[in-house]
Amino acid sequence: MTASATDTGTGAERTVRGGRGDVRRTGPGLVVTLTALTVLLALSVMAGLAIGSVQVPPGQVWGIVTQALGADWAEPGWSRARETIVLDVRAPRVLLGAVAGAGLAVVGTALQALIRNPLAEPYLLGVSSGASLGAVTVIVFGVTLFGPVSLSVAAFAGALGALLLVYATARTGGRITSTRLVLAGVAIAAVLTAVLDLLLLTTDRGNEARAVLAWTLGGLGGVSWETLWLPSAALLLGIGVLMAQARNLNLLLAGEEAATTMGLDVARFRARMFVLLSLVTGVLVAAAGPIGFVGLMLPHTVRLLVGGDHRRVLPTAALGGAVFLIWADIAARIVAAPLEIPVGVLTALCGGPFFLWLMRRSARRTDERGTA
Q1: d(C-alpha 93, C-alpha 225), whole Å
Q2: I need a surface site. Which of 73, 129, 190, 333 has the fewest CB within 10 A?
Q3: Which residue has the higher pLDDT, 75 or 225?
Q4: Of 93, 102, 79, which is closest to residue 45 (Cα–Cα)?
């Protein structure tokens, strides 16, 4: 196995055999897991439509949704105001939560395979900060070079630049260690965040600066049906390409030398994947703001259920991430009602302790291997 990156002891890495992506499956069958998560996602969507400062009974939610889809199965027994709340306010928000959660989960899964590091995640590596800086630059300077997608294009450019910078900084002598990767990500994220804050402080658009500052905490409230198509398209593109490349992601778990022996051009493959993941992250950050730790927690949780094979991990992580972020947004709406907490704050409260536990586990396993 190559020494191009540290072996931090993930379950997926330990079960790759011969570089063929033959990764051990654990837990219940894939079909059972995906079916259960799909049902849970449907129930979560219904809960997201019903729960909020104005409670809408589940029966009315079902009637409003089915009537909007053209199924006139019952007489409307709800007010026009409740219909507007469900269809025009909550539905785009809940769907964006599902899309963003699924996208961040699959991006985190792919990053952990590409860099062969269990701590890899868009937020921790500064990718989200780069995307935020790109998006805020467009807002502050009013750039409309690419029309309605200017914000997403700028966020993509910022995400890609940050990811390449972190990777180049952390890679020394052909090796990437967990410590260098995290330190490089934290340092570059801090610099990018400082530049972003400077832009906000020096802009003469006070109201706009306050709105952008709230957006940088992560939230799903600013979406509409007109803007939902772009993150949805980015998610479909990302999942489609990553599923097609699942075997190559499995090969990377065996190390660069083993993957090269199996016919994979590692440098070119990694470069293409970096562009794709930056595109997905940039579009999602432009839509929902930087929401952290989803891409860290979900891949590790999912591997406990279905093993490390990316043909199983990717779809399971997408469904799990969608469910997780929908419920995080529900909690953000009701925990301090009528005040709404940014969903990024709640994911950080969950992800911070998880990150510390993961670091301690990785360090403990490294010490055990060193004393063996």
Answers
A1: 9
A2: 73
A3: 225
A4: 93
